[in-house]
Structure formats: structure tokens, C-alpha cells
TrEMBL record:
Annotated PROSITE patterns: SIGMA54_1 (PS00717), SIGMA54_2 (PS00718), SIGMA54_3 (PS50044)
Encoding gene, per UniProt annotation: rpoN
Coiled-coil residue windows: none
Protein's UniProt name: RNA polymerase factor sigma-54
InterPro entries on file: RNA_pol_sigma_54, RNA_pol_sigma_54_core-bd, RNA_pol_sigma_54_DNA-bd, RpoN_core-bd_sf
Domain called RNA polymerase sigma factor 54 core-binding: residue spans: 93-276
One Pfam family hit: Sigma54_DBD
Family listed: Belongs to the sigma-54 factor family.
Tagged with keyword Oxidoreductase: no
All residue ranges annotated as the RNA polymerase sigma factor 54 DNA-binding domain in the record: 289-446
Keywords tagged on the record: DNA-binding, DNA-directed RNA polymerase, Nucleotidyltransferase, Sigma factor, Transcription, Transcription regulation, Transferase
Length: 449
């Protein structure tokens, strides 16, 4: 047996603690960063945190983030003032506990036995997240030893509670419950839901008109009303957390020039606690080791925050250059752009741009968008120009909005219209984009006046 020694040379990138911290901080959204900083401060005595509005020294950042002008035209970037830091975001509201809300509606004047009250509570406790009853009547009857008629009586009582449709066992029953107090069983909306719900789902209004022996215009009016009903009773009152959307980058036009900033308004200031830093000169070796470790961690964290600002700032400046038409005209003018292309222009790794884009939002004159929305896919049209999928989707939506609702365009017709505009995509691609826009097919878009 012979023993051989082979020497092989290879290159490997070793992630330092500083690099790991910087990448972690870069990947966080503003909300996640707030929570992370609060946790870091609670663990590290050498960290100070200040919860107050403050400005970032963008002159310092701009020096660190000197960017080559790749487009050949200069883009003016200035520090943004407090007046332009308006953040539009949803406001969360506390909603009463659903079970408590329903229990409080149990009428005192209704003659319910103790067993029936228990059945009612059983129903309330077995509603799914949409408000539908998630248990069969015979199951409730067997569990509490009551007749099926008694179990059904209790369910009918639950059906009188708010929100309308609560306790329904199907979509049909949910819609009928919402109409029962206002409409009779002979009215057209009630009849359509009770007997032609499948046809309604298919948009077969002509068929419904024939079966119900009424004009198509009456069917259209009835369908319009049915669509105002709630298919999920709890969809508007269910208690749910609302995620705040805080833009990480703000782009605004001031005096004819684009103003770009990294939004630090909602992120607290982190600094070194000088008292503990000075203690290292006088404390024992064990304490000194502990403080040194924490000082290093604090310094790395602060460095990571500065690196995050630098990367987002450089990215924002480049976006204003590359996607100038988007900032002037909106999504319809968005150009195709890849993470790889941006990474090459900024001379960083593609994964760095991916982390910078992750869970980030940008505020523009046209609203707040996910940063990922600016990285659009695309392809060449017949004139050799690149069209983005976002632009094509926006155009499809525009065409459909301007169509004659009595004769909606088919997907084939939409493809033909786009072809006339030098955009060649198949009918299947049009259908795919239309569905992604949550727009129904032509059969379901038709209206009868």
C-alpha cells in the first residue's frame, strides 16, 4: 500500500463577524430593524438608544458612496428635509374578540334551554376564520344529546347575529342569510343564488336570464347587488395584525430635481455608552473582558447600520438614473432591470443587492412600492426595444378599462391589439397576465344595460 500526499490550492471566502452583521442588518426591513435594535440594546450594556426623529449625515454617506455616472447624465441628489418625510401606511385598529362579540348578541328574551345555550356556544367556538360553521349539525346533536331539530333551531338563531352570514355552512347559505331580512324567496337575487349560483360563478348571465325568464338587464342588476354581499362574514371584523409599511427610501421631486434619501426617521439612534467604555480602564480582568466583547459587538452593529445606509443610498441613486422614466411617468414606463445588472454597476455581489431589496419599500411621487417591483422582467419588441412585463400588464389593464363592457375583448383580441403596438405576446401570456391582475375573462366581464 502506498501513501500519497496531494497538495491542492483553492480560494475560499471566509465571512468575518463584521460582514455577517452587516449582511444581517442590510436584509432587515425598517420594522424588523427597530425590533432588532431594541433587543441588541437590552443585551449589550455598552449600547445607548435614542427614540427620536433624527437626520442622517448624508454628506458623509455621499462621500462614502461615490457613484460613477453610468448613464452619462448627472442626477442631483440632496438631503431631504422633514417636510418630505410623509409616510403613508395603514393604521391598525383593535377589534373586539369575535367569540365575545357573538356571545354578547345572545338575546335574553329567547327561550333557550341550558343545553341549547351550550350548543350555541359550541357553534360559536367552531367557526372558521371566514365565519363559516366548521361542524355538522348531527355532530352537535350527538355531542349534547339533543334532537337534530333542536340543533337546527339553535343554528337559525346564530344566523340572526351580526355580521350577516355568520354560521353559514356554504357560500350559498351565507349569501341567502344576508338577503333573508330584505328580500323574499321569490325575488330575482334570491332565486339566482338559490338555484343558479354555479352559472353565476361562470358568468353565464344569458343562461340565467333564459332560465329565470327575465331580461338580461334585470339579471345584470341582480348580479350587481349579489356582488355587494360578503362571501366571508368575518373578513372585515376578524382580529388581525396590520403590518406597518415604512418606506426605507424616499424619492421626491423638488424644484425640478430628484431628491433621494434613506429614511431613518423611524429607526432609533445607536451609540456607545461612554460610562461603561471608561470603566474598562479601572475594572478587573474578567469584567474588562466582558466589556471589551460588548464594545466590539456594539462597534460592529454601528458599522453595519452605516453600511446599510450607504448601500441603500447608492442603490437609490442608481435607480433614479436607470429608471428615470418610471419616476417621471409611473409603472407604465418601468424598464426591465435585473439584480445582476445593478450589482455589476455598483460593483458588489448580486446577493448584496438581493438583501438590500428584500422587504424594502420605496416612496415615489406615484405611491409606495416594494423595491422588488422596480426590478421588472422584460423582452424585446419588434422594434428592438425592451418592454417590461409591468408595462405590458398596465397596458392590458388600460385596454380592458376602456373596452365596451357589453362586448369585452377576448384574450386573443387583447393580444392582437398589443401586436399592433409592436408587442408580440401569445394569447396564453395575455391570459396569464390578466389573471395575475385579478381580472376576469371576457365572459365574466360582460355587462347588460
Amino acid at each position: 500500500m502506498q501513501l500519497e500526499v496531494n497538495v491542492k490550492q483553492s480560494l475560499a471566502l471566509k465571512m468575518t463577524q463584521e460582514m455577517q452583521q452587516s449582511l444581517q442588518v442590510l436584509q432587515m426591513s425598517a420594522v424588523e430593524l427597530q425590533a432588532s435594535l431594541a433587543e441588541k440594546v437590552s443585551e449589550n450594556p455598552l449600547l445607548n438608544i435614542e427614540y427620536q426623529d433624527h437626520q442622517v449625515d448624508f454628506k458623509k454617506i455621499e462621500k462614502m458612496a461615490l457613484l460613477k455616472n453610468h448613464s452619462g447624465s448627472a442626477t442631483s441628489v440632496k438631503h431631504i428635509s422633514e417636510d418630505y418625510l410623509h409616510t403613508k401606511r395603514p393604521v391598525s385598529q383593535d377589534v373586539e374578540d369575535i367569540e365575545k362579540y357573538l356571545v354578547e348578541q345572545i338575546p335574553s328574551n329567547v327561550d333557550l334551554s341550558d343545553i341549547e345555550k351550550r350548543v350555541l356556544l359550541f357553534y360559536i367556538n367552531n367557526l372558521d376564520e371566514s365565519g363559516y360553521l366548521d361542524v355538522a349539525l348531527d355532530t352537535a346533536a350527538d355531542k349534547f344529546g339533543v334532537e337534530i331539530e333542536s340543533a337546527e333551531k339553535v343554528l337559525r338563531l346564530l344566523h340572526t347575529f351580526e355580521p350577516a352570514g355568520i354560521g353559514a355552512r356554504s357560500l350559498k347559505e351565507c349569501l341567502l342569510i344576508q338577503m333573508v331580512e330584505t328580500y323574499s324567496e321569490t325575488c330575482l337575487p334570491y332565486r339566482i343564488v338559490a338555484h343558479h349560483l354555479d352559472d353565476l360563478a361562470q358568468g353565464a348571465l344569458k343562461k340565467i336570464a333564459v332560465l329565470c325568464k327575465v331580461p338580461k338587464a334585470e339579471v345584470q342588476a341582480a348580479v350587481d347587488f349579489i356582488r355587494t354581499l360578503k362571501p366571508k362574514p368575518l373578513q372585515e371584523v376578524a382580529s388581525s395584525a396590520v403590518e406597518y409599511v415604512i418606506p426605507d427610501i424616499i424619492v421626491d421631486e423638488v424644484g425640478g430635481e430628484w431628491v433621494v434619501s434613506v429614511n431613518r426617521k423611524h429607526i432609533p439612534t445607536i451609540s456607545i455608552n461612554e460610562y461603561y467604555a471608561h470603566m474598562m480602564k479601572e475594572c478587573d480582568d474578567e469584567t474588562k473582558k466582558y466589556l471589551k466583547t460588548n464594545l466590539k459587538d456594539a462597534s460592529i452593529l454601528i458599522q453595519g447600520l452605516e453600511q446599510r445606509d450607504q448601500t441603500l443610498y447608492r442603490l437609490a441613486r442608481l435607480l433614479v438614473e436607470v429608471q428615470a422614466s418610471f419616476f417621471e411617468k409611473g409603472l407604465t414606463a418601468l424598464k426591465p432591470m435585473r439584480l445582476k445588472d445593478v450589482a455589476e454597476l455598483l460593483e458588489v455581489h448580486e446577493s448584496t443587492i438581493s438583501r438590500a431589496v428584500n422587504s424594502k419599500y420605496i416612496q415615489t411621487p406615484f405611491g409606495v412600492f416594494k423595491l422588488q417591483a422596480l426590478f421588472a422582467k422584460g423582452f424585446l419588441n419588434t422594434e428592438g426595444q425592451t418592454e417590461s412585463t409591468s408595462h405590458i400588464k398596465a397596458r392590458i389593464k388600460e385596454i380592458i378599462e376602456s373596452e365596451d363592457s357589453r362586448k369585452p375583448y377576448s384574450d386573443q383580441k387583447l393580444a392582437a391589439i398589443l401586436k399592433e403596438e409592436n408587442v408580440h405576446i401569445s394569447r396564453r401570456t395575455v391570459a396569464k397576465y390578466r389573471e395575475e391582475l385579478l381580472i376576469s375573462n371576457s365572459a365574466k366581464r360582460v355587462r347588460y344595460s
